[in-house]
Write a structure and sequence with these properties.
Layout lengths: L15 E8 L3 H12 L6 E7 L6 H22 L4 E7 L13 E8 L6 H12 L5 E8 L2 E3 L3 H11 L3 E10 L2 E8 L1 E5 L4 E4 L12 H7 L2 E2 L3 E5 H7 L11 H12 L3 E12 L15 H18 L4 H17 L3 H12 L6
Parallel strand pairs: 1-2, 1-5, 2-4, 3-4, 7-13
Antiparallel strand pairs: 5-12, 6-13, 7-8, 7-12, 9-10, 9-11
Helix pairs in contact: 1-2, 8-10, 9-10
Length: 349
């Protein structure tokens, strides 16, 4: 074993970056996401994949898929004079870096031990990532994303130049329609409507954007692709695991902004493609599943209680209006699901 922080790579001017990808019963999407990360034009890179106790053979499938693809990926990286990856299954309780050849980067697969939700699973990966003191940034990616080959280098370049940026977003495009924007960086919170909206949604991918104007509007960075400075994690803390799904990225950003030490950034040259809702059952433009409805409502009201309690005066009447619409449409289960979520009651079995 090597002591935490021991150098495992040839000296490089590149800041260390770790990509964290969380899987839950979507191993093929996770493999595709990781393969896109393996193609990045960046050498000082680790990849940590966590599985939230899928209990469907996901870990074995991911290990097999990456093991079969890794020789070719490493051959391509050698041809570009970039460090190769060493695939390893690790425990989430690891407290030290595993000894590996000096010219190899980590490609770790860890089972988290339980399905504790999005924040919990990603936090396991972030803690493993930060075992290496050379890791200056963590890039949290949804497993239903894939990344442009130059995206990481663009993010590092922008954030390294501006130490005030604590979390930086990418230009996220719908994978189903690569010509259309899902978010430019993230979204804004609308206090008088007690909800969030995505910035740039529906714009053409090639539409000109003013990054500074986008940054001035950001309340949060899209959690599907959040590039986070190590210092923010150390000073503000990890994601709040009280959110099982949704709104954790707004909570994280709110705490960062309240600290007065960090701001949110947007890198228009970092392109990420997102298959929205593949892993959670949510949907930007359709009717979400009951499970997604429950967690979206529960997390929203949890956030409002913690950070914006006065907004509850607006949120509850809007909730009752939405519930009435569901009742009129004879979607009784959805109406009651929304109420249970808002009150913080357990989901109906």
């Amino acid at each position: 074993m090597a002591a935490p922080g021991a150098s495992r790579a040839a000296s490089t001017a590149e800041p260390g970056v770790a990509v964290v990808v969380l899987n839950w019963r979507r191993p093929q999407e996770t493999i595709a996401c990781v393969l896109s990360v393996l193609k990045l034009d960046y050498s000082h890179l680790d990849i940590i994949v966590c599985d939230n106790q899928s209990e469907d053979g996901s870990v074995e499938t991911i290990l097999a898929g990456l093991e079969s693809s890794l020789p070719l990926m490493n051959e391509q990286r050698r041809a570009q004079n970039m460090a190769e990856f060493a695939l390893c299954q690790v425990s989430p309780e690891a407290r030290e870096l595993l000894t590996s050849p000096a010219d190899r980067r980590r490609l770790w697969i860890a089972s988290t031990g339980r399905n504790g939700g999005y924040a919990f699973g990603n936090n396991v990966g972030i803690r493993l990532a930060l075992l290496d003191r050379e890791v200056e940034y963590v890039w949290v990616l949804n497993n239903d994303t894939f990344v442009d080959w130059h995206a990481l280098r663009a993010l590092v370049g922008q954030v390294a130049k501006d130490t005030s940026i604590g979390i930086c977003g990418a230009k996220v495009l719908y994978s189903q329609d690569e010509g259309q924007v899902q978010t430019l960086g993230g979204g804004r919170f609308l206090p008088y409507r007690a909800r969030c909206e995505q910035i740039g949604e529906g714009l053409p991918a090639n539409a000109p954007v003013d990054a500074r104007s986008i940054e001035a509007q950001l309340s949060y960075v899209n959690g599907a692709a959040a590039f986070v400075r190590r210092e923010l994690i150390e000073q503000v803390g990890y994601m709040d695991e009280g959110y099982f799904l949704y709104w954790e990225e707004l909570d994280w950003a709110t705490r960062a902004l309240k600290s007065g030490k960090f701001r949110l950034g947007f890198c228009p040259n970092a392109i990420v493609y997102h298959q929205v809702g593949a892993s959670t059952g949510s949907n930007d433009h359709g009717v979400p599943t009951l499970g997604s409805t429950y967690w979206m409502t529960r997390s929203k009201f949890r956030y409002l209680r913690i950070h914006r309690p006065m907004t509850l005066i607006i949120a509850f009447p809007l909730l009752f209006k939405a519930m009435a619409a569901e009742v009129l449409a004879q979607r009784w289960a959805r109406a009651f699901t929304m109420l249970r979520g808002a009150l913080g009651l357990p989901a109906a079995s």
